[in-house]
Amino acid sequence: MAGPWWRKCPRLTTGCTATNILENLWHLKGRPVSSSASLLSRASCIPTPETRPPTPAQINMKAGNFLIRHQSRLLLPTLQSCCCRATHSDTKPKDPFTLAQKDLTSLYDDIKKELFVSKVELKSLCEYYFDGKGKAIRPMIVVLMARALNIHSNRAGDLLPGQRAIAMISEMIHTASLVHDDVIDGSDKRRGKRTINEVWGEKKAILAGDFILSAASMALARIGNITVVKVLSQVIEDLVRGEFMQLGSKENENERFKHYLEKTFKKTASLIANSCKAVSILVNSDPEVHEIAYQYGKNVGIAFQLVDDVLDFTSGASQLGKPTAADLKLGLATGPVLFACQQFPELHAMIMRRFASKGDVDRAWQYVLQSNGVQQTNYLAQHYCKEAIRQISRLRPSPERDALIRLTEMVLTRDK
């Protein structure tokens, strides 16, 4: 069996540079850039000076330790050569939630209008999660991106009707996916209250999720742009493919991490990436601008999920609104577990049996906490956020653009 990828790069050479290794692992286009000083200082994954290696020869080590301990060597040369726009204006960026609040005030009321149905029980099912208590992260990103793109395209910052509809549709697709996920996972808690499947049963929950998706599709059709329809239809396909990927696992440890990141994109980041791309299509015909919007959404989405996977090990149920170690109990090996495998090979067998044997969940939990898997996953999330900053910084300066930059910091430092 071929050895892991990091064993093929025992030292930095012209044919196998640190940047190449990063690109192989994260499959990113372009290079990361530095964000604000506060982003770098507040991120918990920055290594202390004593953890940095004195010589490049120590690169011959396993992937997880390599990523953390060589952070400065990997990023600094790239940072120095980056020539994108300044990421911040002189004024302090506004809070993203505050800046988007006006556009999101009627979000849930508008969604309930789309879900109008005469049958009382179905109406209650469909409106159950649209109670205004969700974070509304996705529509917030879409609204800020739309305004930033409108200003970049020499228009007024106000939202176009189609852009406002996309913000609403993104939340509807996300919520429908949560309803279906809860059925698949057998979850009994969501956002601090009982799940739809727990209250009404699995069959009605599935139908409610389907109905929300159908209402979102109708709203999407009314936008009247076939390219936007194609882009957002891709999200639904990705959600299904991502769920199927989550049901399986890879025996080969090299394939396992790639499988995890691809699943993370399909289940979480695709919706944000394609929603951002969709609002760009409505205001600008330049494919490069579409790609900027898409790449920002993709990288922020993956970082968001990586941090979420970390919180499953570091936050209590009261903060998350769901039980801790939920992923392990579902048989899922997320970033912290996969990184911990480098220090505790015993985890490989547990991953393959999906932590199904007695005591697996508790032992895996302890292994992760004893390893640096959490720190390495945090560092990986930071890398994705830096790439998101690099992309969005290519747009013309605006309060909304700077708010999207600040959002990457909030993604890294959130605790719920």
TrEMBL record:
Keywords, comma-separated and alphabetical: Isoprene biosynthesis, Lipid metabolism, Magnesium, Metal-binding, Mitochondrion, Transferase
Domain of life from the UniProt record: Eukaryota
GO biological process: isoprenoid biosynthetic process; ubiquinone biosynthetic process
EC number(s) recorded for this UniProt protein: 2.5.1.91
Cofactors (names): Mg(2+)
UniProt key word Transit peptide: no
Pathway: Cofactor biosynthesis; ubiquinone biosynthesis
Pfam families: polyprenyl_synt
Compartments where located: Mitochondrion
Chief subcellular location: mitochondrion
InterPro entries: Isoprenoid_synthase_dom_sf, Polyprenyl_synt, Polyprenyl_synt_CS
Catalytic activity: 6 isopentenyl diphosphate + (2E,6E)-farnesyl diphosphate = all-trans-nonaprenyl diphosphate + 6 diphosphate; 7 isopentenyl diphosphate + (2E,6E)-farnesyl diphosphate = all-trans-decaprenyl diphosphate + 7 diphosphate
Oligomer and partners: Heterotetramer composed of 2 PDSS1/DPS1 and 2 PDSS2/DLP1 subunits.
Family per record: Belongs to the FPP/GGPP synthase family.
Function: Heterotetrameric enzyme that catalyzes the condensation of farnesyl diphosphate (FPP), which acts as a primer, and isopentenyl diphosphate (IPP) to produce prenyl diphosphates of varying chain lengths and participates in the determination of the side chain of ubiquinone. Supplies nona and decaprenyl diphosphate, the precursors for the side chain of the isoprenoid quinones ubiquinone-9 (Q9)and ubiquinone-10 (Q10) respectively. The enzyme adds isopentenyl diphosphate molecules sequentially to farnesyl diphosphate with trans stereochemistry.
Protein name: All trans-polyprenyl-diphosphate synthase PDSS1
Species for this entry: Astatotilapia calliptera (Eastern happy)
Lineage: Eukaryota, Metazoa, Chordata, Craniata, Vertebrata
